Structures are given as structure tokens and as C-alpha cells.
Amino acid sequence: MSRIGKKNIVIPEKVEVKLAGRDVSVKGPKGSLSLVLHPRVNASQTPEGISITVLNENLKLDRSLWGLYSRLVNNLMVGVTAGYSKKLEINGVGYKASLAGRVLTLAIGYSHDITYELPEGISVAIEKNIITVSGIDKQKVGQVAAEIRAFKKPDPYLLKGIKYVDEVIMKKAGKSAAKTA
User: Are 8 and 70 in contact (CB under 8 A)?
Assistant: First the structure.
């Protein structure tokens, strides 16, 4: 039995949930999101919140889907009430970011500037060398942050590039340090 899946998902105040067959729609103060459930997963609304069930609790696939969809529905609730954000840090001499409308422009050591068109539902704030990606969809926020980071991953020798603010990059020793040691 899935420990995460068997817990009811609490519906926060000011959040409206609609269950129609396999579709789960959540509307809150920050916007609305929807999710289509797997055919082996069912959702029902109870006085305690939303209950997720599966066809057969004894199958490994069903147990894994049970916990997965329980958390996905919970992420919808958190997204429409509080939202999600990821912070990226740009390190390097002359590296900078700028935002013009829905286009993020990065000057990160290449011969040309890199432009990135922001998808709908995602907003970006730039403060010095920190890029904050925010939105209501957890998957989309993480995907956009990963795509921006992929333009210039952190170099383990010089520690230049784009990294998550809470990410720790272990600095490697260069050639000369390795020869003498």
C-alpha cells in the first residue's frame, strides 16, 4: 500500500476542484491547472479532501502510480495557491541576463547572445546575477530553469556558468596542481 497515496489531499481555502471522469481541474487565486489521470487511477472528492485510489493495490505499477498521482494533484493545489519558483545564479566575468517582454537574453561568454522565448505561464525576474523563474506549474518551472541552465552549465574548474542558487559545485584541481601533488 502506498503511504503517500492513501493520504487524503487537503483542499485549501479559495481553491475550487472539479472532477470529471479522469480530468482533475483546480482553480485558485493564482490561476487554474488541470491534470488527466492514468486509466488505472481514480479520484473522488470526500469531506476531508480528494482521495486517490487505484484498481489493484497489490500491483507494483498501481502502487507507484498511486503515490505519483497523489503528489501531482497536491502539486496542482500548491501551484494555484502559492506558486513555484527556482533561482539560478550566473557566475562569470561579463556574464549577464536581460529581459525584454517575453524574451530572455543571455550574454554568457559566447560570440553571440542567446535568446530564450519564455513559455506561457512562466515569469522571470532578474536581479543582478540572479534569475528567478516562477509560475504555477511545478513541472514547467523546473523545465524552463533546466533549459536556461543548460545554455552554460557550471564549469568545475573555473566555476563559471549558470547554476541553481542552492547547488554546490565542487571545484576540481587544474593540471599544474595535479602534477605537483
Answer: no
Integer CA distances (angstroms), 158 to 2, 97, 155, in order: 45, 20, 6
Model confidence at 1, in pLDDT bands (50, 70, 90)? low
Name the one residue in this structure whose C-alpha cell is 479520484. Answer: 43
Predicted local distance difference test score (pLDDT) of residue 5: 86
- Of the candidate CATH numbers 3.30.365.10, 3.20.20.140, 3.90.930.12, 2.70.98.10, the domain formed by 84-164 belongs to 3.90.930.12
Average pLDDT (69-94) is 96
Output the pLDDT for position 104.
97
Contacts of 147 by beta carbon, 8 Å cutoff, 6+ apart: 116
Domain boundaries in the chain? 16-81, 84-164
Predicted structure pTM score = 0.90
3-class DSSP assignment, residue 71:
helix
Burial class (CB in 10 A: 0-12, 13-18, 19+), 99: middle
Whether pLDDT at 85 is above 60: yes
